[in-house]
Each structure stands twice: as structure tokens, then as C-alpha cells.
Design brief:
The structure is a single chain. The chain is mainly alpha-helical and 129 residues long. The protein has one domain. The protein is 81% helix and 0% strand. It is built from 5 helices and no strands. Helix 1 runs antiparallel to helix 3. It is elongated, with a radius of gyration of 16 Å. 24% of the residues are buried.
């Protein structure tokens, strides 16, 4: 997958995710936690960019384990980020309810599916390139 294709697909996924966050924030139960949806969207765009460039480099590496290490590192890193984000927001904002988790995990799920797709495409990269 070349850079242009990735960036176009990332822009489309991000636009769809932004639409979802905007729509969810129009509901009163999610509106008070609007910052969660927008912050998670921004962070996951950055994670996706980092994942693509690290995965692209690892896909053509002579060490066949580099790609697996990147894929596992991104997965574990996102998991720890998600836990830290939820716990941090819960501690700092002390929300009255747990509804803030729904917009966060909606964005998390969308980007996890997208990143899995991208990593599968990068995994098919010819190492002779």
C-alpha cells in the first residue's frame, strides 16, 4: 500500500469517524463528554500514521520478525493507551455516568478495524522493493 492510498483511506475513515462523533455528541447523554470523542479521534489518527510508517518500514526489513513486532507493539500500545485514557478521564473529570466510554470505544473500534486492514495490506508487501 503506497502512502497516497493510505492517506486517502485514513482521511475517509477519519471523516466517517468525525461524523459519528458529531452525531453522538448531538445526543444529550454524550454531549457532556464531547471532548472524549474528539480527543480519541485525534489520538487514533496519530497512532494510525505512526503505525503505517513503522509497519511499512518493517514490512521490507530483512528481519522477518520486525513486522510482527510492530503489529504486536501497536496492538498492545493501543490497549494500554485505551486503559490509561479511560482511567485518566474517569479520575480527572469524575463523570456522573459511564456514557463517555461509548464514543471512545466506537472510535477505537473503527480505527482498530482500519489498522488491521492496513497491516494486512502492508504484510503483503514484496520484500524485494
Amino acid at each position: 500500500m503506497n502512502v497516497r492510498t493510505f492517506l486517502i483511506q485514513l482521511a475517509l475513515v477519519s471523516a466517517a469517524s468525525a461524523g459519528l462523533v458529531f452525531w453522538m455528541n448531538s445526543w444529550p447523554r454524550f454531549a457532556s463528554h464531547a471532548v472524549v470523542g474528539w480527543a480519541s479521534l485525534g489520538v487514533f489518527v496519530l497512532i494510525s500514521l505512526g503505525m503505517y510508517y513503522a509497519g511499512r518500514k518493517a514490512a521490507v526489513s530483512e528481519n522477518k520478525h520486525d513486522f510482527t513486532n510492530v503489529a504486536l507493539g501497536v496492538t498492545v500500545g493501543k490497549l494500554f493507551f485505551a486503559i490509561g485514557f479511560i482511567l485518566g478521564y474517569n479520575y480527572l473529570a469524575q463523570p456522573d455516568d459511564r456514557q463517555f466510554i461509548i464514543p471512545f470505544f466506537s472510535v477505537y473500534l473503527i480505527y482498530t478495524i482500519f489498522e488491521t486492514y492496513v497491516m494486512m495490506k502492508l504484510g503483503q508487501t514484496d520484500q524485494n522493493k
